Q: What sequence folds into this?
């Protein structure tokens, strides 16, 4: 009895013809160039004896939309279902960009470069559009709309009225005259009307500061700050220096209680920012109310202080533009120079010596000392606000005043000058009750 042949009736040994074998993964002993994952269908499948048929499953490749491609042999749109592109010795090479820079690929029938307008791949159209030169730019030498550059035919647009100080001078002069009239008219006509002017300036300054510090992640409560700031100024006007300190204490406590309603997250950060604003704006600004509320000569005291600050700013600007060569604090305010500082001190000292002699019959040398102290305080206030703005990453506190930025950009020097002036005038010109 004959047993069935396990090999069937097929020839054995070397006479057995080769049959295609399906492997679940590529043979590691084969060279990379002898393996093809995408054979062409039809009779040409086994034209090359070294080419193995493509079989599932293969490891999923995230770079192929069908889940079984290869990042270096992806099928491009429009390539069709032709024979494998990298059969034979070309398989496994990593210099694929050569097919776009060299001659056209014989199998895919694609242009040689991505910037060729005949490239059929829609997915690479944005790349081709970015690489392709602009026809209008090539013919006219001009950039597309919104991306123009200055050239010999079209010079850069100049902003009229901007000097070395970076200001629009006509707008700055007009706004400065308007602010001066808003201060002088109430003082001359009815001094008590100057109190609402101070309160409004303090409220706007608090709003600008709270808006600016939010860039650092702090959110100080705005309502108690504005209410406490106005209260602080009113207390200083009617009750004197002790009430000014009381107003600061009430403002800080009010912001602390108000902030408790928002929860503990960021409480310390918000309270620190609120305390800084309360001290910087309403407390220092309250000394202006103390100056203006002095009996008999309050209007003269506030005018002497404000004129000294204006002389300091004007003298510093003129000297800095004309002679400025040595930066004073380049990391804080690059446009300030030692020459400008000397001009500020000189102008304030000369003007204050004359003003205090005419207004209060104070000896000129005491008036000059008053001017020097007020000028130094004004410059320090300007530098302090510049440091705050640089720390917060803002150029101006706001764009409320054309040519000046925000109101705090004008109050920065005044806020440091009024406490200094109040102290010196209390010594040089004692208050008569």
A:
């Amino acid at each position: 009895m004959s047993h069935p042949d396990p090999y069937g009736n097929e020839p054995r040994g070397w006479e057995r013809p080769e049959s295609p074998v399906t492997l679940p993964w590529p043979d590691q002993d084969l060279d990379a160039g002898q393996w093809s994952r995408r054979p062409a269908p039809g009779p040409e499948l086994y034209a090359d004896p070294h080419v193995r048929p493509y079989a599932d499953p293969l490891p999923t490749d995230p770079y192929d939309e069908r889940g079984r491609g290869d990042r270096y042999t992806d099928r491009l749109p429009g390539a069709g279902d032709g024979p494998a592109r990298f059969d034979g010795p070309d398989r496994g090479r990593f210099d694929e960009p050569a097919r776009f820079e060299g001659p056209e690929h014989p199998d895919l029938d694609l242009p040689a470069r991505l910037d060729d307008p005949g490239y059929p791949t829609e997915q690479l159209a944005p790349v081709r559009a970015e690489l392709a030169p602009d026809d209008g730019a090539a013919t006219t030498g001009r950039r597309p709309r919104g991306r123009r550059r200055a050239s010999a035919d079209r010079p850069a647009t100049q902003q009229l009225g901007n000097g070395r100080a970076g200001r629009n001078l006509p707008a700055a002069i007009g706004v400065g005259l308007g602010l001066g009239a808003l201060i002088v008219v109430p003082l001359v006509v009815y001094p008590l009307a100057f109190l609402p002017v101070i309160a409004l300036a303090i409220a706007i300054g608090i709003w600008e500061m709270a808006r600016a510090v939010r860039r650092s992640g702090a959110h100080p409560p705005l309502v108690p700050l504005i209410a406490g700031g106005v209260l602080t100024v009113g207390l200083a006007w009617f009750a004197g220096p002790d009430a000014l300190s009381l107003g600061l204490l009430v403002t800080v406590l009010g912001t602390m209680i108000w902030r408790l309603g928002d929860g503990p997250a960021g409480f310390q950060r918000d309270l620190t920012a609120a305390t800084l604003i309360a001290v910087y704006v309403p407390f220092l600004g309250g000394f202006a109310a103390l100056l203006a509320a002095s009996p008999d000569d309050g209007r003269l005291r506030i005018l002497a202080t404000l004129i000294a600050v204006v002389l300091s700013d004007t003298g510093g600007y003129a000297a800095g533009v004309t002679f400025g060569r040595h930066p004073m604090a380049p990391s804080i305010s690059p446009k300030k120079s030692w020459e400008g500082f000397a001009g500020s001190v000189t102008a304030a000292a000369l003007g204050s010596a004359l003003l205090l002699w005419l207004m209060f019959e104070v000896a000129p040398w005491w008036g000059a000392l008053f001017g020097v102290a007020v000028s130094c305080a004004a410059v320090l206030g300007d530098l302090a606000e510049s440091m705050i703005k640089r720390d917060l990453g803002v150029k101006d506190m706001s764009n409320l005043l054309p040519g000046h930025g925000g109101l705090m950009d004008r109050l920065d020097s005044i806020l440091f000058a009024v406490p200094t002036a109040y102290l010196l005038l209390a010594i040089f010109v004692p208050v008569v009750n």
About this structure: The chain has three domains: 55-131, 189-293, 295-433. The CA atoms of residues 221 and 255 lie 6 Å apart. The first strand starts at residue 327 and ends at 329.
